[in-house]
Design a protein that fits this description.
- With 338 residues, this protein is mainly alpha-helical.
- The protein has one domain.
- The chain is built from twelve helices and no strands.
- Helix 1 crosses helix 7 (201-211), helix 1 crosses helix 9 and helix 6 (179-197) packs antiparallel against helix 7 (201-211).
- The longest helix has 82 residues, at 9-90.
Length: 338
């Protein structure tokens, strides 16, 4: 009698079911991770945008308030250089006295109370409009470089292009004839194009998740589950990269001089004082100091003070500590490109 073979179908089914359940759990976990990443990227992008906008707002406020003072500072600084020029060309003095006066002139430049003579001859005052023109040119250049970088990144991003083409194929207005649907698709395509231009993978995925209704997964089809699993892993890897990039960009912005100003501004607001007002007060003090020096040099030119009094220098230069002098010297060396 022939031995009947054992039916293994009942034994195999639990193994498939267990594998399927594990795969579904993994996919659900990846979907949760993807959703978390999309939210974090959106949050970080908003934080970066707000920080940069605040940097520009504070900088503009300082420029507007400080511009009248800087105009006066520039003019008085020029006047001081002109006074010294007149002293050297019109007053009669001995060799040693001339050298001593030259030392006073250089000392005023060295400690930063007046600009370096070379700089004063080369530079022209930029008013507020000029400054913002320069800022706009720099911004445009930065945006151009950023766009070029984005182009390179996008050309290397096969996944992003695939998502873009898939969404464009589904939501292109020419694909439908109903006017209402055309209007809706037109708005969606604007978002798609903007996200693709900005190299914003997260936004494209968000649009895809929001607007594209995915068909239900066939729980009995292991190939479909495997394909979905691998796709989610790749998408989450790309989202992780974008999230880390945005965190890095925000940190770089915060560590700039303008970024430090924003942090000080926020701290000041919490403690009840205005950083911008304090900066303007510092500029006012600088102007007052410069006016005092101008009057001092003018008095010597007009022979209202003696050579001995002049060689003692303005009072402001007598109150600097060795540490302050060292810091000033370092700054002077940097500005003179030594």
């Amino acid at each position: 009698m022939t031995k009947r073979s054992k039916n293994n179908n009942n034994n195999a089914q639990p193994a498939i079911t267990n594998l399927t359940l594990v795969s579904i759990a993994q996919i659900e976990s990846l979907l949760e991770e993807k959703e978390w990443l999309l939210k974090q990227i959106k949050k970080k992008r908003t934080e970066l945008k707000n920080f940069v906008e605040q940097m520009r707002t504070i900088a503009r406020e300082i420029f507007i308030k400080a511009d009248p003072y800087y105009k006066q500072i520039y003019l008085i600084d020029e006047e001081i250089h002109q006074l010294f020029k007149e002293i050297f060309t019109t007053r009669k003095m001995g060799y040693n006295t001339r050298k001593d006066i030259e030392n006073v002139y250089q000392h005023l430049q060295l400690i930063g109370l007046i600009s370096p003579a070379e700089k004063a001859q080369k530079e022209e005052y930029l008013d507020l409009d000029d400054l913002f023109e320069e800022e706009e040119e720099t911004t445009n250049k930065t945006q151009q470089e950023s766009t070029e970088t984005s182009e390179k990144q996008r050309s290397n991003s096969k996944e992003m292009r695939q998502i873009f083409l898939s969404l464009a194929a589904k939501f292109h207005p020419d694909k439908v004839t109903d006017p209402e649907t055309q209007m809706r698709h037109t708005e969606i395509m604007k978002e798609i194009n903007r996200a693709y231009k900005d190299n914003d993978l997260a936004k494209l995925m968000e649009i895809a998740s929001k607007e594209v209704t995915e068909e239900g997964l066939n729980l009995e089809n292991e190939d479909e589950l495997e394909r979905k699993y691998r796709l989610l892993i790749k998408e989450n890897q790309l989202l992780h990269q974008q999230y880390e990039y945005l965190k890095k960009e925000l940190n770089l912005a915060k560590n700039t001089a303008e970024g430090e100003l924003v942090k000080d501004y926020r701290k000041g607001k919490r403690k009840g004082f205005d950083v911008v007002t304090e900066m303007i007060e510092m500029i006012e003090n600088e102007l007052a100091s410069l006016e005092s020096i101008r009057n001092f040099v003018q008095d010597f030119r007009d022979e209202k003070i003696t050579v001995k009094e002049f060689l003692s220098g303005p009072q402001q230069t007598m109150n600097l500590s060795d540490e302050e002098m060292e810091d000033i010297l370092k700054q002077f060396i940097v500005e003179m490109d030594f």
